[in-house]
Design brief:
The complex is a heterodimer of chains A (371) and B (253). Chain A contains 12 helices and 15 strands. Chain A is an alpha/beta fold. Chain A folds into 2 domains: 235 residues, Rossmann fold; 113 residues, Rossmann fold. Chain B is α/β, with parallel strands linked by helices. Chain B is globular and about 50 Å long. In chain B, the strands form 2 sheets. An 8-stranded mixed β-sheet of chain B has the order 2-1-3-4-8-7-9-10, with helices on both faces. Classes of the chains: A alpha/beta (371), B alpha/beta (253). Strand 9 of chain A pairs parallel with strand 2 of chain B, so a sheet runs across the interface.
Amino acid sequence: MKKPEAAFFSRVLMMGNEAAAEGAIRAGCQCYFGYPITPQNELTAYMAKHMPERGRVFIQAESEVAAISMVFGASVAGARAMTSSSSPGISLKQEGISYMAGCQLPAVIINVQRGGPGLGSIDPSQGDYFQATKGGGHGDYHIIVLAPASAQEMHDMTMQAFILADQYRIPVMILADGRVGQMMEPVRLYEDSPPPAPPKPWALTGAKGRPPQYIRSLFMEERALEKHNYELQACYRQITATEIKAEETETGDCEWLIAAWGTCARISKGVVQKARAQGIKAGLVRPITLWPFPHERLARLARRSQVKALLVVEMNCGQMLEDVRLAVNGAAPVRFSGYPGGRVPTETDVLNALIELTKTNHHGKVEQPAV
Amino acid sequence: MKTPTSGYQRPASLTDAAMHYCAGCGHSSVHKLLAEVLDELEIRERTVGVAPVGCAVFAYFYFKCDISEAAHGRAAAVATGIKRALPDRIVFSYQGDGDLAAIGLTETVHAANRGEPITVIFINNTVYGMTGGQMAPTTLAGQITATSPTGRNPATMGCPIRMCELLNTLEQPYYIERVALDGHGGMVATKKALLTAFQTQVSGKGYSFVEVLSPCPTHFRCSPQDSLKFVGQKMAAQFPVRIFRKEGVPVHA
């Protein structure tokens, strides 16, 4: 990922939701379209106040479906556009996300996840991992998915999302959760001018001085859709080759490797220190891009001879778990500690799960339990 | 404004592509009239259209202006996004009855309610044409379609929705008119309505909406001539042909 030439100065206390909104504004987001849903309402309210002040577009749409369609339109016109919502609302936006993937339109979508399925709860959850990383809408596509774990990262990753979206002409999702969105923390705000957008010769701005052009995802001509899908896949391969990002903590000599993302990764960082204080050589690998997923990094870590087992920690019933298992491919046992009820685990919860794992280990191998 | 040239010729805003529409279909006629309006107002190079899902889904092959696709029913929301991002461009959506009055009713009503300064062209031919002639929200009572094989029964299937009347209850729209493409007179009236709608947008006045009662001989299951009669008589009886909103003020029948 290319970093914007950042100059950070002011440090302010902000909610994650507001930090993301301010990140979008400072990234040069020209159009925002939202619809109320908890726990992301502060983001929409922040945009309602600050976008019109800057002469930019804010609309409270009539539905999430309309909001994402407005994003589609603004992106068609070449503008940097964003919407935000929470899980049930993100389900509604999948239509527009699929169309934007098909039309190769850049956009930023923030999902401040809440519990599900259905109306679920308004508590934090990581239940939308599958939806975000495996397509979500219909058709053969991916979007880039970034997982922040702090208000600072809400700010920084939202900015990054606009850069990536423009660079690859792809929707980018910030997969946050209610905890990250609602938490107040000091945030260093990006204080440079917005990262420049690349030229968008494909945008529909009126056919002045050039032939008319159109944007579509419908390809009825002989084999045209096949060709189009191969083009999309080529773009995904390029993203996979260059944009995978993961963070490692104490993995050098670790025997017990925790894999976690977002809020659970942040909690697990503390768990690693606590475990080491007790003589358990724990480490953490935290995928930052959930798609593309750091499969190779996971595989490399799992294959190290001293690694006895992995513990995947998520606020769901085991979603990234499947990607970790695919990556590890039997090189080490993989166990799971899940919190699917909207409850955020404490460090003690995760530490106990880790201690349990070390106890059940015999002869360097851990039996694969059912999830 | 450019004076129309005498004699019959292809408008400059239409491409040379052979249209896929059935013989006697109203779409090709409305396309031609719309292209003439873009020519006469000299706005082709600053116009961005939004094509629907339905029979006019390939509209981008036929107009010499920029055109975007939209998901089924979302054209008014997509047009809103384009217009808000580029306020000095002319933005129109072109939609059928299923797209605009069924799946896209919400987007249609709320774009009108916000008074988005876009032009919405609504082709009402009482059927879903592209998918094989199913019942539409505007299908007449008793009308036989693929999904109302014994005729639309209002008791269980509802009555045809009158979109102009519905939108006319809102305060923000500036211009609303319904015309019937039922012959030469209908062509002239449709052209005039389209011209007024685009003039409304060019002069920055606000939201404009033109409903065109349009023939679909294929799914009316009759000849092109008889389909014009269906439009002018049966459809016009259900959907009064008149101006509903002029210069922001409701016009009473």
